[in-house]
Amino acid sequence: MSARPSNREREGERESEREMAFAGWPSMFQSPSFKVCAAQILLFGFLIRCMTSLHSYSGASNPPKYGDYEAQRHWMEITINVPVQDWYKNTTDNDLEYWGLDYPPLSAYQSFVHGLMMRYFEPASVALKASRGYETPSSKLLMRWTVLSSDAFVFFPAAILFVISYYGQRSSEERASALATLLLQPALILIDHGHFQFNCISLGLSVAAAAAVISGQELLTCVLFSLSVNHKQMSMYYAPAFFAHLFGRCLHKKKPVFAILKLGLLVFTTFVMCWWPFLSSKEAALQVLSRVVPLHRGIYEDYVANFWCVTAILIKWKQQFPIKTLARFALGTTILAILPSMVQQILAPSRKGFLLAMLNSSFAFYVFSYLVHEKSILVPLLPATLLALDEPWIFQWLTPYALLSMFPLLRRDKLAVAYMALFFIFLLLNPPVFNDQEKAKATCSSWRQQLWLNKSRGFSLASMTMIQLSYLFIPSPASLPFLFDSLISIFAFAHFVPVMLYTNYKQWLVVADNVISTERHKEKKQ
Amino acid sequence: MSSLAIYTSKSKDNPLPKENMTSTKKARGRRGMEEANGKERAREKKDKEEADGKERVREKKDTDGWMELAWIAGLATCLKLLLLPSYHSTDFEVHRHWLAITHTLPLHQWYVDHTTQWTLDYPPFFAWFEWILSHVAAAIDPRIVDLTGGLNYESDACLLFQRVTVILADGLLCFALWSYCSNLCLQKQRLVYVAVLLSPGLFIVDHIHFQYNGFLLGLLLLSLAALREGRDVLGATLFAVLVCFKHLFAIAGPVYLVYLLRHSRGPGMLKRWLLIGISVAAVLSLAFGPFIYYNQIPQLFKRLFPFGRGLCHAYWAPNIWALYNTADKLIGLVIRQFGFKVNMQKAGLTAGLVGDLTPYQVLPQISPLISMMLVLFSMAPCLLEVWKHPCQKKIVRCITYAYACGFMFGWHVHEKASLHFVIPFSLFAVETIRDASNYIFLSIVSYYSLFPLLFNAPEYPIKVILLLLHVSVLYIGFTNHFQDPVSVKLHNSREKMRSKMNSEQDWGLYDNIQVSGNRTGKGLIEHELGLYRLVYLFGFIGVEVCAQILQYSELYLRFPFLPLMLRSIYCAFGMIIGFGSLLSTRLVW
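Structure tokens for the assembled complex are given below, as produced in the milestone run.
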């Protein structure tokens, strides 16, 4: 019946295969339009989140301190039962030793709103003092829904905005796959809906701010990014990128000083509005500040894949140096690491360069700064995910090791199964080996490089799997109880450093955007 | 004969030669020029080209679908793993208890034991399956297989073990799908894989509620694949094995019997009959032989066929009897309004576990015999047809129809039994637009009717989103599949021959595609479904909202079965419509 397939036919087949290999599900059914496809992806993302939320959470039934779940619940309890001025103060009702508020005010307001909701449905879950360690199936569900709804109302729209603004010119299939990678980022889902945190809000606001930068809405950017920083101090990791990019843009304008002042004023106003209840006196403000920036907590927590923790094998930083010296070290190295990408953005601000600067500066913070914990890897991971279509290699290289660096934490939370499932979904959407040469040529400078990267990625993934399996099934020797933990952090660190160097290099290759330079041109003409 | 053609076309293609690369480059160059001319025009052309390319792919019989299968199965497995800690029904404990029974008791006590009410009520092969699993279970945690000490045992290890066994057993379903679909074209394969492996029904029943249907349906599909390839002996043996795993599948027995009798006509007929007979007898004696030896057959059958359980299950499966029950209650109500005395027994129809024959207020009682006769009667057209034309191509349809009959008229039918015909239906749903739309309709009805199985809040969004995604993906998939000019052409020529449809309209659509490259146009599926069925489907939203409102209203305290009744009655109407369409397409073929 069928003759030998012609070249044309094979080509078509080849094409469909490549599509599947690259984007998997979104293009599998060639949805008629981006809208339909986006709706499906949103639904699927929400489904995955709902499913993950069935699993355990940080510190489940583990008294007396429990975990992050209890911290968030406790904040809800405090914020709805204690007057605003006392939220960050140690009072009889508010014992700061027990999960005292240590996030900026916007987090506290969010806790307040969610606390009201919890009180409406289950008053016992947020009763003052009586509710410590309160865990029932229904309260777990309610708490899960606070995160699910925040994700759906903050992160999802931000993701769509970003895809529309940055990838707007791409084909609908590419846009869909960008949206899918952003919404199915396993690390984010695991920490928010498994471990239990509200990164979706702060990171969602950052994504929205990035979208605003890209579509040229500078004022909106300032507001959104200030809100993001006010929700979680970790967003400060992006601050150098935002600052440098906006500063660079302003310099190219007609009245640079005025433009900079305008933006600065806006940031200041937003901050003042967020901090308003705590600005009654200098002491009150400083009290909040000391809670939000707790210098006494040490240079890193547990086993982090950053410079200080990994080199601690050689130099015992914590024992040999006082905290203040260490803080200075950290500050100095961080600034040094950020500087190149900041300079690049000030000199030649561009959209892609900005996203790379976000990645570089947050990475510099993760690797060198003070008070870093495992979950901080989410911050550099986000810009890498945003760039997934432009720089697939960075994204695909970074995600598995970011996940790996959080594996000990997630395992402690009994999330190993969810971790595995989400990791495999990631691999299905981004298969470790794509055998297509055309695609490789599009993404990498040379075919040889691609081959080399392909092989090393496969090798790394295999060794990563080995480490994880041995961590799960082989008990570590009694003399070295944290053997695997430190092994994992070293392994992940070894993968982070080349990426960091590569992205810095990559950022300097990006030229200034046409749009921005034409803008400048126009203004000059005027 | 057809299988021969398939095998010859199975030769694997060589990887892409160099000439192709250059041609791609040329194509790219051309595309670039077009883009310079004008973006929109270029996009249109590009779309068209892409469409052309894809059409070709579909035309070709593709044997490289295993990538697709692996991808979809991988995704399904990830979702199943994520569902691990979800709600599970008492079936979880039932299966754990069976592990304990088969592990601790000797064979002759398997069907005698009554430690708990969860007695072993699946046929011996399933018991043996549990016996094999129990050895692994014992190695993991001995308490899982402890007959008395393990009652209601639900440790993390136990949960993980049981859930993972279901996931692994689904491997058989994947294998069966591969053996059935590997010679279909790529597009069809994808659709079938998605329809089966990502079916919300299987997720709900197997991976949340907890059962082993995926694995058993895998056996059924294997048997169907064998029959379709003309390997009757294998097909019959596999069916016998399946029945020895779960006897509810025996409903298709008559169709199998007639088909095997008639299909083996010709020279060497007796030999083939004998071969089939021997192999089936061997399977049956392997399963039931030991119990014949222990003289336990009556006891075994008492366990396997608990007729005492009543006509309907606790939640009325959406079949004829759901409507019959409602009619009875309504007539009773009306008669009572007029002052007649009717003996009223509350909730007598919904005996879940043990109960007498269902007492009806007004309408005649239904005995197991009547229900069985009705099943056979409804199956009659199909049997007649198989008798007349025992055709390999039609057998899957006929067996699907037989299971649908069993569901519609059977005794003590579970809502889960709708999977028995929805899953085989997905195998041939890709064949014509008519089948596709019937399938979409029937699968929505049947999956929705499974919703009440999960009554806890955490799973609510999961089941709803699973259904929505499944339907939307299949809808788009089917629309794309049938809107591609080649299959539209095929479809039209078939339809013309049968003159069932207004072909002009369709040709118009075909032209439309050619002109604008528009693959999104108003779908054929809606057209085929027709207004009434579409309205009915959208009615589900209303029904769900009503049921939810009822659940939280005061009425619920007085009539706790009202939301369930509402759902099952609405679904019953849908099932009857779907059943009718299944019957009519089957007769047309």
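Residues 494 and 500 of chain B are 9 Å apart (CA to CA). Chain B is about 70% helix and 0% strand. Further analysis is deferred to the final report.
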